[in-house]
Structure formats: C-alpha cells, structure tokens
Write a structure and sequence with these properties.
Chain lengths: 100, 379
C-alpha cells in the first residue's frame, strides 16, 4: 500500500521484526518502516484485542505502539530506524476471558 | 458601544459544565427557552478534569440529608445513563458495579468503618457497605498487594467517562433547542423589574430567571444579586497510564480503569489556591500509593498527569439556593457534578422551574454559612 517517494536510492539497514531480519531504509521512522513493510496490524488493543496500525504519525494518537528492544508500548512514529533494533508487534495482548 | 438587547429566553444559565448543562437539560426538557453562557478554555473547568466517580460511600457521614441525597442520585444513575443513550446515542460508559476505598493501615480502616456506619444510620440502613479484609479482597482481585489491610466496598458506587457525560448533556441541550454560547462569560447581572439583566462582552440578555452554575466563579457572580456563595478551590492531581488488560472489576477512590484499559490514578486533596498545575512530589506519592495497592503497576508507564480544582463549599456539601431578595436568581455549587447529575437534571431543575420542590433541597440552602446563623448555632 505504501511506497518510497523520490528518486534517490536510500541506504538500507537491517532490523529485526518479530524475530525475522528485514531490510528497511535508514533515516525514516519505525512507523513508516512498518507501513512500508505492510506489517499490519502493528498491535492489538489490550482490552478488546482490536487491530491497530500507525495513524497520526506525530506522537499524539498512541496507536502505533510496539515493543522495541524489550520495552513494550513504544510509539513507533517517534523512533527512527537504527540498525539492529529488535522490534515486536504487540499482537498477543491479553483478551478478556469471555472472548478468549 | 451599543449592546444588542436579547429577551428570547426564560432561563439564563451561567456556566456550561456538568452542573449547568445538567440543570439546563431539565429546564429545556420541560419547555423552557434556555440560554447557557460558558467560559473559555483558559478558565478553571472542573468538569473537564475530574475523576468520573459516581460515589456514595462516605458521603454525608456527618450530614444525613447529603447521605440521602447522594443515595437517591446513585440509584437514579442507571435510568439516567439509559435515557442519555436513547436520546443522544452517547454511551457515557456507566459501570456501577460497586466501589472500593482501599485501607492501607488500621487508622484508615477504622476511619472508613466508622464513617460508613454513620452513613448507614443516616439512610435507615439503605446504604450498604462491607469491610473486606486482605484475604477476601485478594480472593476477588488477585492483583491486590498482601500489604493492603483491606477495603471498604459499597455496591452502589461506580464510574462513568466524565467527558462523554458532558458531551451527552450538551448534545441533549442542542437537540432540545437550548442555545449554548461558549467563550461568552457573564460579566454582570442586574435585577430588573422582577427579572434579570445579564451582560456579556457583546450582548445584554433579559429573562425571569438566572441560574449560577459557574463553579469557582459562583461567589463573584452571585454577589450581583446579593447571594453569598462561599466556594474555594481544592486541587486534585490525576495520573493517566498506558492501557493495560482489564483487571479491576469496579472503581476505587485510588485507581479506576476505563473501559479502554487506561488506569486513572488520583485523589490528592491540596490547598493550592487557584493553581491547577501538577507537582512532581504529588505525582510521585500518587504513583507510589497505586503501586503499594497493586504491585504489578510498577511496570506500567505514566502517559500524562493534570491538576484540576474541585469546587468546595466550606462544609463540602452542595449549595442549592434561591435568592430571598431577588426570587428567580438561583445558585448551585457542588464538587460532585458527576454523582449528582441525574438529580440536577431532574429534581433541581423541577425546583427551579417551580413545578415541584424535593424536600431535601431546603437542607442545602446557603443560609447555613450566614454569619448570623453561625452565631445563633454557637449561642
């Protein structure tokens, strides 16, 4: 759904996404990289387990939360790609027992 | 400057927060033509900063009418929430599954227990409560720390999303044809031939009734019609965490969990004047107390905090007062705009429109603060 703009071939670096090595452009936000990779949804909500993805891209909506280097609930739109970062989508959030 | 002269209304409501909006829905619902004048975003707006509890436990421990009034208000909430939902399609998120007040030590336990017994006595036993010890509490909510002594549980307590409540009331006002004027504070009120003139920066309004529901500004505004409504600010700071899986089956004074999973941590009481800022020491204390009650919250991050000013009368009880000098002028002040919302939209609006006076309303007259009345009581 998303593609890179511009003619300059960007420099790519490797990060780890859900224990898989993937190659993404350096210098963009993690949220942009997740959209580029079409790695959606990026999380499920903690109460209703609803699917979520990056939305506002400016730190306000808290929809793009992911685990980065072991810390959960980080806003992917506020973090730039850095080589070797370990990212996990929060897809296994607890579901209310009635729905589980 | 020539002000436009407007006399299209029966009732002028000064203040569009939870109190003013609830009363206005009642008046507009009985066919009155209503205008609501509200302040701006820089004013102190308790309705936008509060905790959202529907709370009976402990209310009126030292004043029986308040215990009864709060009990009636809490029992009215389910039907009130349903009527708002049907009329506006706004779900205020009422969860009335009871409420807890955690006791960390014996002093707190004894204080709660004696307070609740007094409320029960004042309501002929209608107010129910149960003191839960640590084992009972942890059997119900396993996340509670072993270090908590216990909690007071009362089944009528609950919570709502206070912002949705405000939105629902304003939606209802708009549907009923009431006119809401945001950022149009009332500058002065003048008694005028059995009615009142109300001046804003741009216009002058006349009507038979004026109702002051302006929170901390009530004292200043109601003075124009010779009513003395003493109110002072009492700051509360609130913390908001990231969303976590639901674990709290009901609200508590210290922590409540929204339907979406956010934890709201609160209940500081600070004499800080007209200052609604947050302070690191209070944020730290509130967070530490929440972690002391629920140790697993240590790993949960805070997202934001804010301060808001409660509207406190000298004895903490509501004021429902009609001016004796200028009938038609009313003042309503309280710090429980959420809990009492159904009564403000119902019984208080009926009292103001003259259709019916609930007998308990007379028990909340502001004359109790008169210097002469105080002297008499002391004599």
């Amino acid at each position: 759904m998303f593609r890179l703009l511009g003619n300059d071939a960007p420099e790519f670096v490797e990060i780890e996404l859900d224990a898989q090595r993937v190659s993404v452009p350096a210098g963009i936000s993690l949220a942009a990289a997740l959209l580029l990779l079409d790695a959606l949804p990026t999380r499920r909500t903690p109460v209703g387990a609803g699917p979520r993805a990056p939305f506002c891209m400016m730190g306000a909506c808290y929809e793009c939360l992911v685990e980065i280097d072991g810390r959960v609930n980080q806003r992917a739109c506020q973090v730039l790609i850095s080589a070797g970062m370990r990212v996990r989508r929060q897809l296994a959030s607890a579901v209310p027992e009635a729905e589980a | 400057m020539n002000r436009q002269f407007i006399n299209d209304y029966d009732s002028l409501i000064v203040g569009g927060g939870l109190v003013g909006a609830a009363i206005a829905t009642g008046l507009a619902g009985s066919g009155r033509r209503v205008a609501i004048f509200d302040g701006g975003d820089r004013d102190f707006r308790a309705s936008r900063g509060n905790f959202g509890l529907v709370w009976v436990q402990g209310k009126g421990a030292d004043y029986a009418p308040y215990a009864r009034w709060s009990g009636i208000a809490a029992r009215a909430w389910p039907a009130f929430a349903q009527s708002l939902l049907e009329a506006t399609r706004v779900d205020v998120g009422l969860q009335q599954t009871g409420g807890l007040d955690f006791c960390l030590d014996e002093t707190e336990w004894d204080a709660r227990d004696s307070e609740m017994r007094r409320v029960q006595a004042h309501t002929d036993g209608e107010f129910e409560f149960q003191m839960l010890d640590n084992a009972e509490l942890r059997e119900w909510i396993p996340q509670v720390s072993e270090r908590v002594l216990g909690a007071c549980f009362s089944p009528r307590d609950g919570h709502v999303n206070p912002l949705y409540l405000l939105r629902a009331l304003h939606q209802r006002l708009s549907d009923l044809g009431a006119d809401y004027f945001p950022s149009r504070p009332v500058l002065s009120t003048t008694p005028d031939g059995g009615g009142f003139r109300v001046d804003t920066a741009t216009d002058r309004y006349t009507a038979g009734q004026v109702v002051f529901c302006a929170g901390l500004a009530n004292q200043r505004l109601a003075r124009d019609v010779e009513m003395d409504i003493p109110v002072r600010p009492l700051r509360g700071q609130l913390l908001i965490t990231e969303r976590v899986p639901s674990f709290l089956p009901c609200a508590s004074v210290q922590v409540r969990q929204t339907r979406e999973g956010t934890l709201q941590i609160g209940d500081s009481h600070e004499d800080a004047g007209f200052d609604e800022s947050t302070t690191l020491d209070v944020i730290t204390q509130l967070a530490a107390r929440a972690v002391r009650i629920f140790p697993h919250l240590e790993a949960v991050r805070l997202q934001r905090a804010w301060g808001a000013l409660r509207v406190m009368t000298p004895d903490g009880l509501p004021v429902y007062q009609q001016s004796s000098r200028y009938p038609g002028a009313f003042a309503v002040s309280c710090h429980s705009g959420v809990t009492l919302a159904a009564l403000h939209a119902g019984a208080v609006a009926e009292w103001i429109d003259g259709s019916r006076m609930h007998p308990l309303i007379a028990d909340f007259s502001a004359t109790r603060f008169d210097v002469s009345a105080t002297r008499q009581r002391r004599a």
